[in-house]
Each structure stands twice: as structure tokens, then as C-alpha cells.
From TrEMBL, chains A, B:
Belongs to the aspartate/glutamate racemases family. Keywords: Cell shape, Cell wall biogenesis/degradation, Isomerase, Peptidoglycan synthesis. Provides the (R)-glutamate required for cell wall biosynthesis. This is Glutamate racemase. One of its GO terms (biological process) is regulation of cell shape. It catalyses: L-glutamate = D-glutamate. Pathway: Cell wall biogenesis; peptidoglycan biosynthesis. Its EC number is 5.1.1.3. The active site is at residues 72, 183.
Length: 269, 269
């Protein structure tokens, strides 16, 4: 029962999900794969994203994880059902948890969604929200500049803040009471997005909500980790490990002392 | 696939869960049983609560529900595992969802819980919280006066406000950032509890959180209701149907127009 939760992403964005898993489920072991050599997935064709996701899932399967988490909205939008049909263990995406949190939160019935071009074009949030609650109004905006800001480590700069503010302008005039950060990279930009949207709009982090849904699913399957040993996490990336490790350490700082971490660059891609 | 979600409670408290199910899952059909003749469950022995819960589950099983929701913290604390072992469908309690929401929310690591004497004595929230996150500090307080205020329909009176304020005093001096309303009756008293605790403490409604967890579990089982017909809800109580209907109508007002409702008094108890 010490099997890991395997988390995959197009790059470093999924680390926001990892951070929340480490925070909300401190007894769980995490194995992470960031496809930093091929990031971003947002502008890629669905066929390519499905292929890449399959490759990473095949790689992660060697560790016999108890769950696969597709911590990338673009990959969740196009590859979730495909991966579900290929493995026996639960596969959790990042779209449904954010949608459910928005449904719980909204009182006005108008929900905002920001994401990559791929996610917005797929209308995956709209489908997920309306499948459960058909009366909702959904306002979406693609923010293609946000992921490169995060992947290049510039997410705290003044340039980042200004880019975020200008990008969000078109969505500000709608009567939203919540905005789904429909890309796992976006929590890196939370401060700037909060400033851009103003105090009346609650930001919903798909990372926080996905970690909570992981908790619920493991609980209902009787698979939550027990407190009998310290988990050892493993991190893999397909690109430059120096930049990856630097961003991961800065982002996961608080949780890096508690548990030993193994860093590896695999050869699959 | 038009099977209902069956919700049971010791009285009217579980209507707070029903309200959230109707709000967050407007396509789902609900069958409710309130054991108003034998309320409250809080001061009863665990054996008695298990027996009563089994009787109600046996009654509800005739409707072939797709899920049983034990919308009563006292019954969840003592009867959840027993009921799980007796039925094939998922059984959802109200304790784990509130615990998970508190874990997601807390940054200070100190979580408050208020509930009936039965729930607090069972330490069920403490176990649920520490099973997932052993480092948390938990502060609990039994509020035995709250349920009678709600069941007698007095939840908006000045007397109710004053009772709530005085009862909460012992828990106010702890550095809580969230307080779990560990009894499904308590959302009726949300205004008074919020006033009593001050603006820095976020109230976590086990009703809201349970509805969201119901959504997650049905989704992962492929059992969410489709938008192809208007659900007809059914409400049963074991005691005086006049008072029950009055409280239910006042509480669920907004959702009573949309769907036809059947009111019945069964003969099981």
C-alpha cells in the first residue's frame, strides 16, 4: 500500500498540483514527470498531445502507481478518456475538480475560465460545467502568454504582472463571482491574476481542487497512505534538469526538507 | 440511470445537504428520509443510532438508489462503516468531506469543529483529519443546544442568536482559521455562528462539501444524471409531517418550484 500517486504534466505547471498533494496529503508518495523538452502543449494538435501523454503514462506505469494524475489541462481536455481506457487504475484530470469547485462556489451563475488556447478551444470546461449544471453561463479567455512566463522562471517579474493585467482586460467586464485558473501553470501567477481581477472574484485553483479530489477518490477506494513511513518522492523531466530543479525547489521549498527527493532525467523522449 | 440519491438524517438537518445537492447537481433526483419522530440522535447510544440508521437504509433500499448519503454527523460517526458493509452501492457520510475541505483551507494548521455531544465524543473529525494530516491541531466543542433550536423552527430568533454566541465563547480564543460545522443542522444557524466567530474564521459547511463529494464520486463512477428529464423528489419523515413540510419548504424554497415533490409519512417507525 505504499504505491505512489503518479503526476504528469507538459512541464513545470503540474508542480502546483504536487505542492497541493504534499500539503493536503503529507503521507502520500509522489512520482512526477514534467515533459519540459516538449512544453508547451497548449498550441499542439490533439493527436500529438494524446501521443505524448501515452508515452509518459507508459513510462510511469513501471513504478506501479495507484493513481495517474494528468496535471495539465490541455492533456486532460484531449487525452483523459484515452488514458482511462488504457489503464486499470483511476485516472484523475484537472478539469472536473475545478468545475465542481466553481459550481459549489458560484451564486451568480456566471463562471469565468482562463486557460491555454488548446484548453479554451476544446471547450472542455464548458462541457464539464454544463454536463452537471446546464443553466450556468461560462466566459472563457485564452491566455497564451502565461505558460512561457512560468516555464522561463519569470513569474515574479514586473513584466509578468503587466502582461497578466493586459491579458485579463477582456474578461473583467463580465459579472463573474469566480474564475477557474484552467491551467496548472497559473497558480504561479496567482498574485498578478488576483490584482488583475479585483477582490470580488474568487480564484479557483485547479491544483488545490484536484489534490482534494485525489484525496476523496483514494479515501473511497480505501487507498490513502498510512502514517508508517516518510514518503520518498521522485521527479523526472525530459529537458534541462537544472532549470527544472531550480523551479521545482523554489516552488516546493517548504516540502523539500521533510522528504528525500530523487531527481532523474529519463531517456524516453 | 434515473436512480435517486437517497439521503437520510435524524430529522430536518439533512435538508441542508439536500439543498446543496439540488443547487450543485440540479439534474439529480433525491429521496429524503428525516427521522423526526426520534430526533435528536446526538444524545443516543451508538447501538441505538446504528439500529435506527439500518432501519432507514432498509426502507430506502426499496427505491433502488444509486447512492446512500448519511446526512447526519452523529450517524456517520457511528454507523457509516456498518452501512457500508451491508449495501453494494456507495455510502457517503458527512464527516470526511468536511475534513477534506478543512485540510484544503487551513494555513495555520489549527482546525475547529463544532457538533453534537455524540459527534464530539466519538472524535470522528479528529480521526478523519489526523488520518490524512497527522500534524493538525484540532479544537472541538459540543453545542447540544443548537439542534433543538433548528428542529423547533426557532433558528432565526433573537434567542437563537444569543444562545449561539454564548455557546461558542470557549472556542473563540483559539487561533483557528476555519471551523467545521460538524452537524448538518448548523447551516440553518450560519448567520449567528458567523457573528459569533468573527470574520477571520471561515465556516466549512459539511452540507456544501458533501454535495461536492457526491458529485465527484458519481462522476468517477459514470453515474451522474443526464439532462433528459426533470427529477421528481420524494420526502419522508417519521414524525409530524406538518412541521417537517413547513421547515423543508422554507429551507428549500428556491428549488421547490423547479421540481415536483412527493410528501409521504411511512410506517416503518
Amino acid at each position: 500500500m505504499h504505491n505512489a500517486i503518479a503526476v504528469l504534466d507538459s512541464g513545470v505547471g503540474g508542480l502546483t498540483v504536487v505542492k497541493e498533494v504534499l500539503r493536503q496529503l503529507p503521507q502520500e508518495k509522489v512520482i512526477y514527470f514534467g515533459d519540459t523538452a516538449r512544453t508547451p502543449y497548449g498550441p499542439r494538435s490533439p493527436e500529438e498531445v494524446v501521443l505524448f501523454t501515452r508515452q509518459i503514462v507508459d513510462y510511469l506505469t513501471q513504478f506501479e502507481p495507484k493513481m495517474i494524475v494528468i496535471a495539465c489541462n490541455t492533456a486532460t481536455a484531449v487525452a483523459l478518456e484515452d488514458i482511462r481506457s488504457r489503464v486499470e487504475i483511476p485516472v484523475v484530470g484537472v478539469i472536473a475538480p475545478g468545475a465542481r469547485a466553481a459550481i459549489k462556489h458560484t451564486r451568480r451563475g456566471t463562471v469565468g475560465v482562463i486557460g491555454t488556447e488548446g484548453t479554451v478551444k476544446s471547450r472542455a470546461y464548458e462541457y464539464a460545467l454544463k454536463e452537471i449544471s446546464p443553466q450556468l453561463e461560462i466566459v472563457s479567455l485564452a491566455c497564451p502568454t502565461f505558460v512561457p512566463l512560468v516555464e522561463s522562471g519569470q513569474f515574479l517579474s514586473d513584466h509578468a504582472k503587466e502582461t497578466v493585467r493586459i491579458t485579463l482586460e477582456p474578461i473583467r467586464r463580465f459579472p463573474l463571482d469566480c474564475l477557474i485558473l484552467g491551467c496548472t501553470h497559473y497558480p504561479f501567477l496567482t498574485g498578478a491574476i488576483r490584482e488583475g481581477m479585483g477582490p470580488d472574484v474568487t480564484l479557483i485553483s485547479s491544483a488545490e481542487e484536484t489534490a482534494r479530489e485525489i484525496s476523496a477518490i483514494l479515501y473511497h477506494r480505501g487507498q490513502l497512505a498510512k502514517a508508517d513511513r516518510t514518503p520518498v518522492h521522485q521527479f523526472f523531466c525530459s529537458g534541462d534538469p537544472v532549470m527544472f530543479k531550480q523551479i521545482a525547489c523554489a516552488w516546493l521549498e517548504k516540502y523539500m526538507d521533510a522528504s528525500p527527493v530523487v531527481w532523474q532525467v529519463p531517456t524516453i523522449v
